Amino acid sequence: MMNRIDRIKGCLLGGAVGDALGAAVEFQNWADIRREFGASGIRDFKPAFGVLGAITDDTQMMLFTAEG
């Protein structure tokens, strides 16, 4: 059974992974994403800000909030 700290770490990691997955399409609308990546949308890490798997300010703010 996972303890509370492990669950919190899992949530933070899941948020960071989701942020990195969506970073390349963060400001695109669904029609543009579907045109570029197909009907399923983005399904793998793509370069964002010159880095594959880059996180955004969203992850940074999540970590700052968790630290607080």
Structure report:
With 68 residues, the chain is mainly alpha-helical. It has helices at 4-22, 30-37, 57-67, and strands spanning 47-48, 51-52. It has a two-stranded antiparallel sheet. β1 (47-48) and β2 (51-52) form a beta hairpin. α1 (4-22) runs antiparallel to α3. The model has no long low-confidence stretch (mean pLDDT 93).
What distance lies between the first and last C-alpha atoms, to the nearest angstrom? 27 Å
Query: How do the helices and strands follow one another from N- to C-terminus?
Result: HHEEH
Low-confidence stretches: none
Question: In percent, how much strand structure appears in the residues?
Answer: 5-15%
User: Which structural class fits the helix and strand makeup?
Assistant: mainly alpha
> Largest sheet, described in full?
2 strands, antiparallel
- Average pLDDT value? 93
Give the strand tally.
Answer: 2
Q: Provide the spatial order of strands within the biggest beta sheet.
A: 1-2
**Number of helices, counting only DSSP H or I runs of 4 residues or more:** 3
- Principal-axis shape: elongated
How helix-rich are the residues, as a percent range?
A: 55-70%
Q: What is the C-alpha radius of gyration, as a whole number of Å?
A: 14 Å
